[in-house]
Amino acid sequence: xxxxxxxxxxxxxxxxxxxxxxxxxxxxxxxxxxxxxxxxxxxxxxxxxxxxxxxxxxxxxxxxxxxxxxxxxxxxxxxxxxxxxxxxxxxxxxxxxxxxxxxxxxxxxxxxxxxxxxxxxxxxxxxxxxxxxxxxxxxxxxxxxxxxxxxxxxxxxxxxxxxxxxxxxxxxxxxxxxxxxxxxxxxxxxxxxxxxxxxxxxxxxxxxxxxxxxxxxxxxxxxxxxxxxxxxxxxxxxxxxxxxxxxxxxxxxxxxxxxxxxxxxxxxxxxxxxxxxxxxxxxxxxxxxxxxxxxxxxxxxxxxxxxxxxxxxxxxxxxxxxxxxxxxxxxxxxxxxxxxxxxxxxxxxxxxxxxxxxxxxxxxxxxxxxxxxxxxxxxxxxxxxxxxxxxxxx
Length: 394
Hints:
This protein is α/β, with parallel strands linked by helices. Helices cover 34% and strands 17% of the residues.
């Protein structure tokens, strides 16, 4: 799960260092540990202006989502176990002990269930968030969980989604000029012209999921043994594949060794910006969704999550700032992922660059048919892994 590993811009680092270096005095401090490039530097400056210098902002970036999850685990350990441990942050070292606990951390929805079950994070009170009711229901459902981290419509709210993306099909437009067609949906991956011309993610959940989707089923189907056609379809897809990878799947496409690649929208949007030969499509039959969230670290001390300490006013202000209509547009334009707050807007009111970007902002039909990949039980996960090994060794 090491997608979206982009270098933070020099301006972002400059803002973070400038703001954290200011004299704090008795002013309130907001510490945020975020995924690199997920928040534009301009947003940090705009937020600071709104505070009239009444607070100190400390934004520190990390390159990988799994690093952020491990840091949440590190903070959960008793302080004696944290001595000598350091954050691996660009240009600085800080103790990973409780005194350096961040107020908010970026977390991918993939890790949300484990973060709750391991008591690494605290819930949020949605009644204190001005824009909560404007968050699309699909994203509200994503973050409502019980104490074990399972989806629960009556559960507490464990995160604030601030951007999202999809799994998409990218292709070399020049390779399809003489074929009379271009990839449009998952079913096209099985066309004979793509034999040995396909790059796929090295992920059983993604590959088995898209195959299930091509057969008219859910990405999150929990029974595979009653679908005899699934194995046959996976074997046929495997014969199309030249490469499985989570980090180098686009290189063969750029070189022309493959004609099609399945990957994450952030990676592919960045590649399309640099290379006009690369086009992409979000399958209208539906695809996998992912989302990045703001979560509150719990730290080492036991906390009653039924009555957790309230989030600070700065935490609430930051979340509402990310969700306000103007910032939702700016975040979507300047990062390679969209704010969920755009989905309840009239698309005709959005800037033309967003309206015309079908990868950043897919059609309403495609989104309605898409799903967040849900965690599997241990038993079902073993079934997926066994099928994956069998296919890969065939």
